[in-house]
Amino acid sequence: MIQDFSDLTGLQIDALKEVGNVGAGNAATALATMTGARVEMSVPQVGIVPFNKVADMVGGAGNAVVGVYLMVTGSATTNMLFLLSIDKALLLVDLLMGQPPGYHKILDEMSLSAISEVGNIITGTYLNALASFTGMQFVPTVPDLVVDMAGAILDSILAQFGELGDHVLVVENKFNREEYDIIGHLFMLPEPGSLNKILTALGVIF
Q: Which pLDDT score, from 0 to 100, does residue 43 have?
């Protein structure tokens, strides 16, 4: 039985990456519908990182970030976290609202609402793709939006779910359009036993 993502083989990571590819394509379509303009998303990079290195991927534990977090029940209980550094979040708001880069200086209520919707779309399309590949049911909660230091957000998640694995799956999403180049990270934090169920359903567990 696989205990955490550090035990995955290349074949298993490739299977999860394919899920990410489909999710990214669906997310790009949904964002284009939301904004009325084409939003390009590069093929996502999928990797495995120790939980204690997650903050480093968004500038360090002391870096201010925007996080969209939700719990997922159903066939395999897991947790999803979409993180953007503040500067990338502002740039994404510019893109979504058709403004030039640097137009938005602060994350006001409208900006945060837009980021929350993006996080909801990214997590939702990934879960939908995963459900399509596995035939499993994933039931997400209403996402929570938080603006805080990266370390504080992760500490809060650990305090709430002490049984998470030592490693997590990260899907790096890149949004592109002309002068825009924005990277956001989607982290999947399964509860014990859930990863094995997902990989079994994908047909890549041995």
A: 67
DSSP at 143: P
Q: How far apart are CA 153 and CA 146, in angstroms?
A: 8
Half-sphere exposure of 168 (CA within 13 A, CB side): 26
3-class DSSP assignment, residue 187: strand
Q: Are 79 and 189 in contact (CB under 8 A)?
A: yes
The class level of CATH for 5-201 reads: alpha beta
Taking a C-beta distance cutoff of 8 angstroms, is the pair 136, 203 a contact?
Answer: no
- Tell me the pLDDT tens digit for each residue of 138-178: 999 998 999 999 999 888 877 776 566 677 888 888 887 77
200: left (phi over 0), alpha (psi -120 to 50) or beta: alpha
* Whole-angstrom distance, CA of residue 3 vs CA of residue 21: 25
Three-state secondary structure call for residue 42: coil
Q: Which residue has the tokens 């990571």?
A: 13
Q: How far apart are CA 154 and CA 168, in angstroms?
A: 12
Q: How far is CA 89 from CA 50, 138, 152, in A?
A: 24, 27, 18
Exposure on the CB side of residue 10, measured as CA atoms within 13 A: 0
**What is the domain partition of the chain in residue ranges?**
5-201
Q: Are 115 and 68 in contact (CB under 8 A)?
A: yes
